[in-house]
């Protein structure tokens, strides 16, 4: 049985008279039900994000891209799928050993693009037993 979790935030909302009031919002739901997404969308539709917040999200996105590529590569190996070229085996090893810090290395970006286009990754994504443990926000 899934547990009930919550996400909360305070938001200024304009009422029908144009007055701005701050309201506290509590959203309840099971894990993965979209609570954080709802809160983020509320923030986007009100004041938006500050530059430091945007830069923080950028780093999170970079990390999620690398971790998702690594998860796909590992699962393709577990399933025994072969890459289309020898180069892609080396690229997969480079991606697996990469630890994202700051901006993404352009060589890793290119490696991820090439691996993504490889038949082994396509088969991994189509395989009914090919469950890949993606980070929630990377799906």
Could you walk me through the main structural features you see in this protein, from its secondary elements to its overall organization?
This protein is an alpha+beta fold and 139 residues long. It is 51% helix and 16% strand. The chain contains 5 helices and 2 strands, in the order ββααααα. Strands 1-2 form a two-stranded antiparallel ribbon. α2 crosses α5 and α3 packs across α4. The N terminus is likely disordered.
Number of helices: 5
Distance between the termini: 23 Å
Estimate the global geometry from the Cα principal axes: elongated
Residues in β-strands, percent: 15-25%
The overall strand count is 2
Taking pLDDT < 50 over at least 5 consecutive residues as the criterion, the unreliable ranges are: 1-6
Rounded to an integer, what's the Rg over CA atoms? 20 Å
The biggest beta sheet is recorded as: 2 strands, antiparallel
Q: Average pLDDT across residues?
A: 79
Provide the spatial order of strands within the biggest beta sheet.
Answer: 1-2
Helical content class: 40-55%
């Amino acid at each position: 049985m899934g547990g009930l979790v919550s996400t909360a935030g305070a938001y200024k909302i304009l009422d029908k008279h144009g007055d701005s009031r701050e309201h506290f919002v509590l959203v309840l739901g099971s894990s993965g039900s979209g609570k954080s997404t709802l809160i983020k969308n509320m923030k986007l539709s009100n004041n938006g994000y500050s530059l430091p917040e945007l830069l923080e999200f950028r780093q999170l996105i970079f990390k999620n891209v690398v971790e998702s590529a690594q998860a796909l590569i590992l699962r393709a190996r577990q399933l025994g799928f072969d890459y289309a070229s020898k180069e892609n085996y080396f690229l997969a090893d480079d991606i697996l050993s990469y630890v994202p810090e700051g901006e993404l290395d352009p060589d890793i970006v290119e490696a991820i693009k090439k691996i993504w286009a490889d038949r082994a990754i396509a088969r991994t994504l189509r395989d009914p037993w090919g469950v890949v443990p993606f980070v929630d926000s990377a799906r």
